[in-house]
Design a protein that fits this description.
alpha/beta, globular, single chain
């Protein structure tokens, strides 16, 4: 078993269940764009990928339309959507334990970095994380490998062989592997066990207790 000293966590679907707020914000943006969506299953697909990808891949929006949809999404999310979230069962205790054990913890998310900071503060978890890294306002640094690389560059002397990335979707696993980190999947979030395995997750936890046994 590897001795992990540094652990990166995805946010949505890994630390917190924020799907409701994401879906409501996506629905708001689509309505303002005169797109009616009654299928909640399609709205669920906004949880995880970068917004540019979701609006393009699900609804075919391009260019200025994509930019407008993202602006509308952020308008709603920044006012109310971001607060429609809660930590997954056992996660606060896990973070406290890891913190007390001297593990260095970080957030690596495709969410707007300013939003990620506010969500972590809202959840009362800011004391656990050394760095919170996310995407920029202009849409850059939205891909998970970019976010992870940006975060790692801020940690002098980090040893990748002792560093793990924990996430619930293939984006997290693929990003971790591209950056040379151990990739650990969680199946309680928005991804599936199948996609985590296909992406190359070395280990998969079904809940916070199982995750604790892998990280400690």
């Amino acid at each position: 078993m590897n001795h992990f000293t540094d652990i990166l966590f995805d946010l949505d679907g890994t630390i917190s269940d924020s799907r409701e707020g994401i879906m409501l914000s996506a629905a708001y943006a689509l309505e303002k764009m005169h797109i009616t969506e009654k299928d909640k299953e399609r709205l669920k697909r906004f949880a995880g990928p970068p917004l540019h990808d979701s609006f393009r891949n699900i609804y075919g929006l391009e260019g200025a339309d994509t930019d407008m949809a993202i602006e509308l999404y952020r308008e709603h999310y920044g006012e109310t959507g971001m607060f429609r979230c809660a930590p997954y069962p056992g996660i606060p205790d896990l973070l406290e334990t890891l913190h007390l054990e001297g593990k260095r913890l970080y957030i690596a998310t495709s969410k707007l970095e300013s939003f990620a900071r506010k969500v972590i503060e809202y959840l009362g978890m800011e004391k656990y994380f050394t760095i919170i890294a996310g995407s920029n306002d202009d849409g850059s640094r939205a891909k998970k490998p970019e976010v992870i690389g940006y975060l790692l560059a801020q940690i002098p002397g980090l040893k990748k062989e002792n560093t793990a990335m924990v996430g619930d979707m293939r984006f997290d696993i693929l990003g971790a592997r591209e950056q040379g980190l151990h990739a650990i999947g969680v199946s309680y979030g928005y991804g599936t066990v199948e996609e985590l395995k296909e992406a190359g997750a070395a280990l998969i936890a079904g809940n916070a207790g199982e995750l604790a046994s892998l990280l400690l």
